[in-house]
Specification:
Blueprint (H helix, E strand, L loop, with lengths): L3 H13 L8 H5 L12 E5 L16 E9 L5 E4 L3 E6 L6 E3 L1 E2 L6 E4 L4 E8 L1 E2 L8 E2 L1 E7 L7 E4 L5 E3 L10 E2 L5
Parallel strand pairs: 6-14
Antiparallel strand pairs: 1-2, 2-8, 3-7, 4-5, 4-11, 8-14, 9-13, 10-13, 11-12
Amino acid sequence: MKTKTATVALAAIVATGTAVAAVPASAATTKAAPARCHTADLKAGFATGDDAKPDMGRAGKQTQAFIWFTNKSNHACTLSGFAGVDMVGAQRTDGTWSLARSSKRPTKITLGRGDTTDFSINLLPVAGSTPQKKKFVPATFQVTPPNETKHFTLKWPFGGQILKQDGATHPGTYLNPIGQ
C-alpha cells in the first residue's frame, strides 16, 4: 500500500522528468579497499638508529636487525605476510642464504602515502675467531616485499658474522612477518 507522501513524491519526479536511482546507504559510504603494495610503491632500508642496531658483538646470543618499507606512492596500499630475504655473503664460501620464516602469524598493514612499517630479523652472531666454515659474513640483503618478485638490494651496514645455519631446520637466524 502506498502512502500519500510517497505518491506525491513519485508524482513530482515523474512530472519533472527526472530519473532517480535508488542507492543503498551502505553503498554510498563504502570505499574500495587499498590494493597491495608493489615493489615500485615502496622504498626500503635498514633501521640504523642506536636503538635499532643489532649487537653483532654478542656472540652466541640472538639480536635483531630491522628493515623498513615506506610507501612512496600517491595512494594507500597494504602489506601482509613475510618479505623474502636472501643474505649474500662477503666470503667466497658464503654464497646466498634464504632466511627461514618464524612461526608468528602475519597481520595486514595499510600504509598511507609516506607511512612506514618494518619487520625484524633475528640473528645469531658468532665471534670473529669462529672457523670460517661455521660463520656467514653478510655483504648485502636482497629484500622482496610480500607477494612480489622484484627485490631491493641493501648493503649490510653492521659488520660482524652470523653462525652459518643455512641448512638447519630451526636456525637461530630467521625473519618475522611485516609489522613484527
